Amino acid sequence: MDEGHFCDALLGPACGFRLDHLEAVLAAALDGRYIFLTCGDYADGARPAGNFAVLRHDVDALPIRALSVGRLEHQLGILASYFFRVHANEYNAFGFENVAVIRQLAAMGHEIGLHAEPVDLAAATGCDPAGTLVASRAMLEAVADVPVRGVACHNDVTPDNNLDYLTGARARALGFRYEAYDDENLGLFRTATYLTDGHYWRWRSFIGGRRTDDERCLCRHVADGVAPLYVLVHPHVWPRRHFHLVDEAAAMPDGALR
């Protein structure tokens, strides 16, 4: 491990999946002159000069942690893309508190997208994938009060691959601007260095769409000036104190959702 690295001083000899470390990494990226984009920005053609990173969040569980991450980014002047599930057993996207979370993120300027699982839903329930995708998008738009232009396929613990159904062309046909992994309408997965924390407490990296052996923290890639970056961060694995302390209300100014 590099001597004198900023995360060593912050967390000791190992990088940790805690909110304060994520804040330090994002701040270091800004200090290193990285420009942050949403997926929608990139899909619309934004290509800044110099180093840039496209920042995406798949909200697999605990949406309240998405609000904590979104507030942190907002304070740093960063916009990101937040993709919400609407068929999850883990949370109800349309419950009062979660609607408040979605609307607050949208009000900060973050992009709201659909985290879709059409193959899983069809296999489990027999629902028509196309019809449920269109309905899910409409419902999410109704509560967020912003257009939902992007969709990102969810990868669950089933043998089903939702990407088998939701290709980029089909996403466009169903009214989406892009799917998060498609080559035609976004084109990031195979052209940027893709980093994901999607394997609990272990980073994975992909170059040219192929997984590498590099499991270093995002902070190391930022320190090395790797660009462009396509970064997937799952907010629920970045707690303020401990993974099992799920109430993040203390992170809010008055302890309440608005």
Describe this structure in words.
This protein has helices spanning 6-11, 19-31, 39-43, 63-76, 96-107, 118-125, 129-144, 168-173, 218-223; strands at 35-37, 52-59, 81-84, 111-116, 150-153, 178-179, 193-199, 202-207, 210-211, 229-232. The protein is α/β, with parallel strands linked by helices. The chain has one domain: Glycoside hydrolase/deacetylase (TIM Barrel, Alpha-Beta Barrel), CATH 3.20.20. Helix 2 runs parallel beside helix 4, helix 4 packs parallel to helix 5 (96-107) and helix 6 crosses helix 7 (129-144). The longest helix is centred in the middle third of the chain and has 16 residues, at 129-144.
Features:
TIM Barrel, 258 residues, 10 strands, 18% strand, single chain, 10-stranded mixed beta sheet
Write the layout of secondary structure elements.
Blueprint: H1 6-11, H2 19-31, E1 35-37, H3 39-43, E2 52-59, H4 63-76, E3 81-84, H5 96-107, E4 111-116, H6 118-125, H7 129-144, E5 150-153, H8 168-173, E6 178-179, E7 193-199, E8 202-207, E9 210-211, H9 218-223, E10 229-232
Parallel strand pairs: 1-2, 2-3, 2-10, 3-4, 4-5, 5-6, 7-10
Antiparallel strand pairs: 7-8, 8-9
Number of helices: 9
Strand proportion, as a percent range, falls in: 15-25%
CATH secondary-structure class: Alpha Beta
What is the number of independent domains?
A: 1
Report helical residue fraction. 25-40%
**How far apart are the termini?**
42 Å
What is the CATH superfamily classification? Glycoside hydrolase/deacetylase
CATH topology description:
TIM Barrel
Structural class call reads alpha/beta
Task: Please tell me what the overall shape is.
Answer: globular
* Helix and strand element order: HHEHEHEHEHHEHEEEEHE
